[in-house]
């Protein structure tokens, strides 16, 4: 398959994660031809040129080269290390947010294009202004999804969020946009705790959260979410995909592998890389009806370090009958 795409609709926004180290091997890079789109506005908030949106088409050659790197990393960390990272996960994320505050992940403005339910809500509200909706971000971090959504839409009656990092919730609540009349956020561990006694949302989001949880707990967590959500609601999922730059980078470094497709970064944060098929199986087994599933293939270059990153993100929408 020719990796060039003659036309492609812009469907994504800025990268989810800032990676400061690592390289893609030259053969891998040469087999990917980039498709360039200029952004509407030329400058960012720091008055520097905006990084244009660039996509690449994933094909069998790219997959084989990525698998070659990943499969060469055969050594997993010992069980006591695995258990240590599992036990200290919340402390590690507290440290992460204490260091980065709200400066690591970018606001997720792309959600307006990726979640058609938002437009449905808007149309319903325009027809009847008393029609209001509830959203809940599970694993909300410091509010990179909640604040942009509430700012751009007037039809949310309540905006809920929870995260297992107390530090993240503290940073979120300190945000000047946090209005206690609309927002409610609390500490909750998706694995260990019952889900909060919030009003059940019309729309739930699970964005780059499941990848930070041990794979043996994935199905249990998704089932817990399914049971918690109300009939007629939709869950939007987005996370890291197999063969992502991050996975290849961690495989090259060695001594980062916890299980197949599950790694630990230098700061102790863990990350799992999903296939589309795996995501479909998880959510449908838990009881959800899959509305759609797709992967985003995005090229990003760190201007400062000149590191070239070929990202893979998986996203899906799931309906509870």
UniProtKB/TrEMBL annotation:
Keyword Amino-acid biosynthesis attributed: no
Organism: Paramecium sonneborni
EC number of the protein: 2.1.1.-
Enzyme class: transferase
Role summary: S-adenosyl-L-methionine-dependent methyltransferase.
UniProtKB keywords: Methyltransferase, Transferase
Domain of life: Eukaryota
Pfam families recorded: Methyltransf_23 (PF13489)
Tagged with keyword Methyltransferase: yes
Family per similarity comment: Belongs to the methyltransferase superfamily. METL family.
InterPro entries for the chain: METTL2/6/8-like
GO molecular function annotation: S-adenosylmethionine-dependent methyltransferase activity
Name of the molecule in the record: tRNA N(3)-methylcytidine methyltransferase
Record GO biological process: methylation
């Amino acid at each position: 398959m020719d990796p060039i795409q003659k036309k492609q609709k812009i469907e994504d926004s800025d990268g989810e994660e800032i990676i400061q180290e690592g390289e893609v091997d030259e053969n891998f890079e040469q087999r990917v031809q980039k498709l360039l789109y200029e952004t509407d506005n030329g400058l960012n908030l720091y008055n520097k040129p905006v990084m244009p949106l660039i996509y690449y088409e994933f094909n069998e050659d790219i997959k084989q080269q990525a698998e070659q790197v990943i499969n060469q990393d055969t050594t997993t960390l010992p069980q006591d290390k695995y258990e240590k990272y599992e036990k200290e996960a919340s402390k590690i994320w507290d440290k992460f947010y204490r260091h980065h505050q709200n400066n690591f992940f970018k606001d997720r403005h792309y959600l307006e294009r990726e979640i058609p339910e938002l437009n449905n809500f808007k149309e319903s509200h325009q027809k009847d202004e008393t029609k209001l909706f509830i959203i809940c971000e599970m694993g909300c971090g410091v509010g990179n999804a909640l604040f942009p959504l509430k700012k751009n839409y007037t039809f949310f009656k309540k905006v809920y969020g929870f995260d297992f990092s107390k530090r993240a919730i503290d940073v979120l609540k300190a945000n000047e946009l946090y209005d206690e009349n609309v927002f409610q956020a609390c500490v909750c561990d998706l694995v260990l705790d019952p889900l909060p006694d919030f009003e059940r949302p019309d729309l739930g989001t699970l964005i780059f959260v499941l990848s930070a949880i041990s794979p043996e707990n994935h199905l249990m967590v998704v089932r817990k979410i399914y049971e918690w959500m109300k009939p007629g609601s939709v869950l939007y999922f987005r996370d890291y995909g197999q063969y992502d730059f991050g996975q290849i980078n961690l495989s090259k470094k060695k001594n980062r592998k916890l299980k197949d497709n599950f790694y630990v970064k230098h700061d102790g944060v863990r990350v799992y890389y999903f296939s589309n098929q795996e995501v479909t199986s998880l959510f449908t087994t838990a009881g959800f009806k899959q509305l759609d599933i797709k992967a985003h293939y995005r090229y990003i270059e760190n201007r400062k370090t000149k590191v070239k990153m070929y990202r893979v993100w998986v996203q899906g929408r799931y309906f509870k009958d």
